[in-house]
Give the backbone structure.
Amino acid sequence: MPTQQHWTTDHIPDLTGRVFVVTGAGSGLGLATTRALAHRGGHVILAVRDEDRGRRAAARITAARPDARLDVRRLDLADLDSVRAFAERVRAEHRRLDVLVNNAGVMAPPRTLSAQGHELQFACNHLGHFALTGLLLDLLAAGTDPRVVTVSSANHRRGRLFFDDLSGERAYRPMAFYNQSKLANAVFGRELHLRLTAAGSPVRSVLAHPGYASTNLQKGTPVRMVRLLFGRLLLPLAQSPDRGALPQLRAATDPGVEGGGFIGPGGPGELRGRPTRVPLAPAAADAATGRRLWEVSERLTGVRYAFAGRSAGLA
């Protein structure tokens, strides 16, 4: 990837005619990403759990850019039935996609199970995005400079995959399971890159993380200590959502970004700064872990990837 130490949204090329899906587009990093893409001419599908919030977000963008092309569609990533319904609607409305930004997430709730019985953070942050990517992969393969951008976190370096207790039934700690989900994002993005490359697919898998950005993710967690620390005490150190979204925007639009790359803030501790390539934790690049997580994810979602121009099938 060419070095651009001061990459900003001014570097985003003209996106006219390109179609993007951004999950969690109703607020925070997702809204900032959607706004920047729309302002450069991109057609953005706002994938949101709360359609009213999504429509309000779209209205704020079109108020500043009346010609913005935006569609609001419901997607609850923690419910695999919703993921399949969303994918079916996108497939009915579009013959191709250019970029999928797997941005949405939840952070440190009390132990909660998804509609299919999976721990909520693992379900929403990882399994939902794994299923969505597989179900849309053939549309992406038909796109122009197609990419899957999966948003992880610097916290992936603190994570462990609890393969013997993914649902937290035996022992649940909110932040430990958040870190697990962010490590799963990183492992998935890396493993997807390897499989796409092996298949000769035109789709690039790129990872990104925002550093420390002030969003509803930290402010909305019910864990009081996390909310106090990141939602109040450390808030003066946080980047704005617009700055926090720069790594995923670069991953989604910079022609020089390489598949398998990880884009994050270049400042101290990767907490803030201009987006640049940053290292993955060794655990995220472990081949055996990548294979195991992929197999588990296929089993838990019922989605099996096809890399030869067909849509993913259901197990």
In short: Residues 46 and 87 are 13 Å apart (CA to CA). DSSP finds ten helices and ten strands in the chain.
